[in-house]
Amino acid sequence: MFSNPLRWGSQSSYQQVAGGLDAQKCSPEKSASLFSKVTYSWFSRIIILGYKKPLEREDLFELNESDSSYTVCPIFEKQWRKEVLRHQERQKAQVSIHKESHAGKPSLLYALWNTFKSVLIQVALFKVFADILAFISPLIMKQMIIFCEHTSDFGWSGYGYAVALFAVVFLQTLVLQQYQRFNMLTSAKIKTAVIGLIYKKALLLSNVSRKQNSTGEIINLMSADAQQLMDLTANLNLLWSAPFQILMAISLLWQELGPAVLAGMAVLVLVIPINALVAIRVKKLKKSQTKNKDKQIKLLKEILHGIKILKLYAWEPAYKDKIIKIRDQELEFQKSTRYLAVFSMLTLTCVPFLVSLATFGIYFLLDEENILTATKVFTSISLFNILRIPLFDLPVIISAVVQTRISLGRLEDFLNSEEILPQNIETNYAGDYAVGFTNASFSWEKAGIPVLKDLNVKIPEGALVAVIGQVGSGKSSVLSAILGEMEKLTGVVQKKGSVAYVSQQAWIQNCTLQENILFGSTMQKQFYEQILEACALVPDLEQLPNGDQTEIGERTRILVTHNLTLLPHVDLIVVMENGRVAHMGTHQELVSKSKNLTNFLQVFSDKEDAHASKRINVIDSKTILEDQILEQKDRPSLDHRKQFSMKKEKIPVGGVKFSIIVKYLQAFGWLWVGLIVATYLGQNLMSICQNLWLSAWTKEAKHMTEFTEWKQIRSNKLSIYGLLGLIQGLFVCSGAYVLSRGSLAASRTVYTQLLNDVLHLPLQFFETNPIGQIISRFTKDMFVVDMRFHYYLRTWLNCTLDVIGTVLVIVGALPLFILAVIPLIIFYFTIQRYYVASSRQIRRLAGASRSPIISHFGETLSGVSTIRAFGHEQRFIQQNKEVVNENLVCFYNNVIANRWLSVRLEFLGNLMVFFAALLAMLAGNSIDSAIVGLSISYALNITHSLNFWVRKACEIETNAVSIERICEYENIEKEAPWIMPRRPPSQWPSKGIVEFVNYQARYRDDLGLVLQDITFQTHGEEKIGIVGRTGAGKSTLSNCLFRIVEGSGGKIIIDGIDISTIGLHDLRGKLNIIPQDPILFSGTLQMNLDPLDKYSDSELWEVLELCHLKEFVQSLPGRLLHEISEGGENLSVGQRQLVCLARALLRKTKILVLDEATASVDLETDHVVQTTLRKEFSDCTVLTIAHRLRSIIGCDRVLVLDSGRIIEFETPQNLIRQKGLFFAMTTKAGLTQDSETKNKFL
């Protein structure tokens, strides 16, 4: 289904917030003088400031209003809406005239052109002017050589040529830098526009579309495909500029060498089809690599979200192998691509030589009297040098176009994917009911099997309604239907007023507690405090150092229950069974209707009425959809996260340490490094030898006819010229091959080390660092390592050798040139020092500003149902715009810094050209015209080489920031080793005796103790209940047992072995836990149960039967091989929890920790599961972390904690008799008033 253009909102949603651009440090670009604009002198203050101190975000200039996302996004969305409407009209027209509708789709490319065509045309005009100026320089040089050949014409005209040459190259510099400035910023605006559209579309996706586009794939569209579009735009003009330059060069060469230039054209005609074949092959590889990258990001994101499960079960190696397997496939694609790049390198270096060789050879064959003069040779060589760049650019841009076509296709598929239909729900209903269903049936897909059937429910306004039923009965689906998240197949759904929604899986943003609670609403202090009291958050906030200003991480967990304690207090109960309403009425009506239903309710309704009633509070008459009960329990998010706040990404300052580059070279391999230096040295020596040979040849040309065998001599000289070119080609191929091998080795080593570092980090790191920061290392930073850093190193090395060779050649021809070179090089290095200090820090700021984009995007995708339920799409679009704009500010400053550098470096290069030309003119008839041609042609080349040399040196340092960011994780304190020399016996633990001896623990060295002097011992096979108020340390105790938190004193002994003396995997692999969070990973059900592939199918079926999942799994098409979607979203939360129970039963060990294990299953299933656990783990030591006191009925002893200390440790019966803290807790919960429960305790 194509996008509904009317749903994309108006431009008003993109209005700037107060304190936006106007309140920030505005760019002085608009008010600057013309000279300041063309030389970028207005930016000098940032460069100087960056040299004096590390730049901070506040130091940077803000964007011009026309470049910001505030302006760009609404303009582009308007054009996209127009394109969608045009496409729909074309389809209607085809249908109306009975024509078959072609399977087309709205064109993203056409919408982009309509948005940015004026600035793209402006950029193209700059490029045309710069290209024309580039060809004027060889023509002036030609006149200078002619001037030197005719000494009788000596006069002031020679100096005029030198000045004219300087003026042309300087003007070319100014025009080219304006082209680069507009080009780069336009490409950034295109990326911004596309990201804004992707984000907005992600908020509108239907359930089917969300299944088709995983979170990883959508993030990849934003990070990789939008970037690919930006990269193409930055080079788009080369698509016409390269052929234009080639034609210009050929036409000028025709004037010098006549029809012989057709031989050179023939070489080009042969090369371009080969490049096209290479591009087609690259397209296929790129398509495969993109799919592979999507899988990698998806799995990586799941691993990071489920890292606690991996650590508790010691599954890190299994999932590491999965990631490495995908990464190896990606490197195979990269290897093929890089071997194809060997041909591109050969094209860049050798095609100009082959063109010149063919041209010179045919030139001699056309007329035996033809000779190569200095004028013809060096004018031709200059033109060949100009020709080299477009010859290289053309295949690159063709390849980029091919790759971008893939990205455009993916983007268009996504932007035209199916959206949720607003008409599924009537929201303008003004009747007596808050929500009404009339003969309504729903499915998750348009053509899918109905999940909810024939619903006829009228929910009165202001009523409190309970929807109950067994796991998979459709309870959560009812709420999804009200929210419009499901496809309505039949019937009518009416909704009155606004909605508040509590998701079954808690979605918490990475911001302060207060911001999470307010969720965009205006602060009303008295009402806010009432809400805190109603949600039992006041005791938690009192324990947090910053209260409700504490920043919450991305892994906050809240218990999901099927609690029926509220049923007597609600106005209406809806009982779901197999997707239908089985019963509906008040509690009393349902109890009186059916004996079976009475039993159903009575069995599972505990009598915590007093506790429940405290949590029932009608706050507002608005519709509140609640898919969970927030238990007043020991929340891990507030227990140990009270010691942490989310960390802002640290931005390094100062120069990148040389050791960072050394680390990369070590990963590259010193052998490969040495071979690369040798091959590139040989390549540059051969290039110099070719030009020196031509210079010597032209010196002799005027006297060539004096020799009797001059034709043979000319043929020999041409053969030697060809041999030098052949040797150069061999060096080029060897260098490209060595570079490919070494860079692949570096990519593999760096990635593996990063993955190892991340998997060995302690859990606290993941709870205090946004996942976006970590993923950014694996995506953007690894992209630099994979694709860019080795290129910058190679280019810098090549430019260094080229500059050295050029200076030596010019100084050899014109010794006085050394006097001009020395001060100019001093200026070069001075400019470089100032630039690098600023550019490096701007690059770091840009890197840090990328992570919030990814984090916010991922966060939005996780909570899209909640955002849509509250109707806060526009607020989140605004937030996305703001984080994108922050990154744009850094990009803008980086672009201007580069232009500032280029103008100054090229000006110094232009001075070198001027001095070389001036010295040649001053020498007059004392210097051969061949030497003049050689020196000036090299001088014209040195401007580009020196500029590239300094720029690539800067690029190496600024891109080394990515390697620096990757290496940061090496220096963070890791967990203990997975395996240590001392290993426990294979049958350990055999008794299950757990002993804490004077144990203490804290979360950080600078924080207080969270467990103090904990000393107790269990008996073998004993069942221990662990209770305490919120923050008492219950979950911390279990974390210490698994060494998630390391001790600060004392020890923990299991069956006689101090657990601190063995490896983490030897410990965690012998313990068992059923955690609160039912986390599953994408892949087969079998893989989720047994990722290490240790158990047989029969064992898997046995545990599924024990967990009452066997019948359900047998009904699935793939049975054990059924594909679990990302996060287990194609299973209900209760089913996910049962899968986690099956894991524990499969992994049966002597010690089991239960952390509210049946939180997400209905109470009937809970009863059966508890019976199964008691039977299957009867011979095991079981530690139950009790958030509900009823769950420890039947425990042998109860451990009571308070403020990290043991207060009581006795049998439940003795604790009740002692009337201490445990007695007070049971009394408050109403358990001692319940005779049945009291008898169980006593």
Automatic annotation (TrEMBL):
Superkingdom of origin: Eukaryota
InterPro entries in the record: AAA+_ATPase, ABC1_TM_dom, ABC1_TM_sf, ABC_transporter-like_ATP-bd, ABC_transporter-like_CS, ABC_transporter_C-like, P-loop_NTPase
The keyword Transferase is annotated on this UniProt entry: no
Entry GO MF terms: ABC-type transporter activity; ATP binding; ATP hydrolysis activity
SUPFAM superfamilies: ABC transporter transmembrane region (SSF90123), P-loop containing nucleoside triphosphate hydrolases (SSF52540)
Topology in membrane: Multi-pass membrane protein
Coiled coil: none
Keyword flag Membrane: yes
Keywords from the UniProt entry: ATP-binding, Membrane, Nucleotide-binding, Repeat, Transmembrane, Transmembrane helix, Transport, Vacuole
Listed PROSITE patterns: ABC_TM1F, ABC_TRANSPORTER_1, ABC_TRANSPORTER_2
Subcellular location: Vacuole membrane
Pfam family, one: ABC_membrane
Listed Gene3D superfamilies: ABC transporter type 1, transmembrane domain, P-loop containing nucleotide triphosphate hydrolases
Domain ABC transmembrane type-1: residue ranges: 121-403, 675-948
Extent of the signal sequence: none
TM region positions: 119-139, 159-176, 260-280, 339-366, 651-672, 718-739, 803-831, 907-927
Positions of the ABC transporter domain: 435-646, 994-1228
Annotated GO CC locations: lytic vacuole; vacuolar membrane
UniProt similarity note: Belongs to the ABC transporter superfamily. ABCC family. Conjugate transporter (TC 3.A.1.208) subfamily.
The protein, known as: Multidrug resistance-associated protein 1-like
